[in-house]
Write a structure and sequence with these properties.
single chain, about 270 residues, alpha+beta, endopeptidase fold (from Nostoc punctiforme), six-stranded antiparallel beta sheet, 5 helices, rod-shaped
């Protein structure tokens, strides 16, 4: 028998393999139980559902905010446009009011000028008639007649011609018109001579050769004056005595009685 047979060993005894297996099995079983318990937890827990719905709520809110911003911007644009339109309308009204006032002012000034012109013409007419009366009075008292103009007083048929012609002084001149309130040169002469029973041609050319040609130094009241050539005259009038004539001159003067110096004639014919 060995001397070391009964000496206890200092090495730790080895564990039994079967115990180790049992312990491993127990640990595995516990872990398996925990895993099964976790797997058996409810699948429809509330927190999971709420987390899934959040993106949908956030997206809808962003859309509403964008629409509100767009609507606000459109309102601002509309208000600005309305303000511009109101300003333009106000400016247009001011311009129209100013233009109307200016037009009224010009019309008033034009009417005043026309009234002044009429008053001046009336004054000249009164002066002319006054001078005519003075001339006739001087002739009646035995004053001499200007040699360059021949006889100054009308008598008989010539007086009737001049009375009609003088009554038309102030009427308008209208080319082609034959009275009673507007005339051209030859229609006035024709109508005046009709008062003496003389039927003259209508136009100035044949009127300038209707009677006997006479000198401008030996005129008598009632003689027909013409401007231009005999037979080709472009204007006619009637010698009224005292170095004057009556004629429908032009659209600016109408029917007037003027001195021969105002518009010297070319020649004259005598019918009475």
């Amino acid at each position: 028998m060995s001397h070391t047979a009964h000496i206890p060993s200092h090495r730790k005894p080895r564990r039994n393999a079967s115990k180790t297996a049992i312990r491993s099995g127990v640990a595995g079983g516990v872990l398996s139980t925990i895993a099964l318990a976790g797997a058996a937890a409810p699948a429809n827990a509330e927190p999971v559902t709420e987390t899934i719905e959040m993106p949908t709520l956030t997206s809808g809110l962003a859309g509403s905010v964008a629409q509100s911003a767009a609507a606000t911007q459109q309102v601002a644009v509309d208000l600005e446009l309305r303000a511009q339109q109101d300003a333009a309308a106000t400016h247009a009204a001011k311009v129209a009011k100013k233009a109307k006032a200016e037009a009224e002012r010009k019309a008033e000034a034009k009417e005043k000028a026309a009234a002044a012109a009429r008053a001046k013409a009336a004054e000249e007419e009164r002066a002319s008639r006054s001078e005519e009366r003075t001339t006739l009075a001087a002739s009646s008292s035995g004053s001499s007649t200007p040699a360059s103009y021949g006889t100054t007083q009308a008598s008989g048929s010539a007086a009737a011609v001049l009375a009609f012609a003088r009554a038309q002084v102030g009427d308008a001149y209208v080319l082609g018109s034959t009275g009673p309130n507007s005339w051209d040169c030859s229609s006035l002469v024709q109508a005046a001579y009709r008062q003496a029973g003389v039927d003259l041609p209508r136009t100035s050319q044949p009127q300038s050769t209707a009677g006997t040609q006479v000198s401008l130094d030996n005129l008598q009241p009632g003689d027909i004056l013409y401007w231009g050539g005999a037979g080709s005259a472009y204007h006619v009038g009637i010698y009224s005595g005292g170095g004057k004539f009556i004629g429908a001159q032009n659209s600016g003067t109408g029917v007037v009685e003027k001195t021969l110096d105002w518009d010297p004639p070319s020649g004259a014919v005598r019918l009475l």
